[in-house]
Description:
One of its GO terms (molecular function) is xanthine phosphoribosyltransferase activity. It is built from six helices and ten strands, in the order H-E-E-H-H-E-H-E-E-E-E-H-E-H-E-E.
Amino acid sequence: MSYLKERILKDGVxxxxxxxxxxxxxxxxIDPKVMREIVQExxxxxxxxxxxxxxxxxxxxxxxxxxxxxxxxxxxxxxxxAKAATLQKDQVYETKVYSYTKGTTSNVVVSKQYxxxxxRVLIIDDFLANGExxxxxxxxVDQAGAQVVGLGICVEKSFxxxxxxxxxxxxxxxxxxxxxxxxxxxxxxxxxQGH
Length: 195
Ligand code: 5GP
């Protein structure tokens, strides 16, 4: 079993609505050993894809994304959740992302100058649940006329609809840990096979 999965079983805390808290090693305090494993696996999977940029969304995608970008030796770009009042619409690609963990919709933007049609983009995020963040990031890359090579996800909750939506959209996904089921009564996490 991977070190990430071991830490999920040992330190993951189950919250209502199938939300998993992993603040002790990924979302607040960060375990470099988890980061090293993420880099190794995702780099091995995408190394021949001529990645030119790694894209994520603030805030919790930033740590794994910068580590992966360093390995590919390419820039890391993060989409920002922008306030409508400060938005310079002509200078950004913009999309909307609904967060079911927060129950809010954010305007998510990247500066046009940082994404261009030649880019081959690897998208990284900490969690894949319903796929809203991933599909929003894909939309930003599409607006730039760039290409999404694939996604690298730390923790996929496979029982939610994100993976299916991405598979149906023909987007390549590599997930480090796929969770088939979270049983809150028994405080149990069951992994799915594969990536
Ligand atoms: P999605 O957009 O796929 O529905 O959800 C992915 C985003 O929501 C991630 O960027 C992540 O920050 C957050 N998220 C979704 N599910 C969880 C969860 O179980 N735990 C944590 N900590 N974040 C989650």
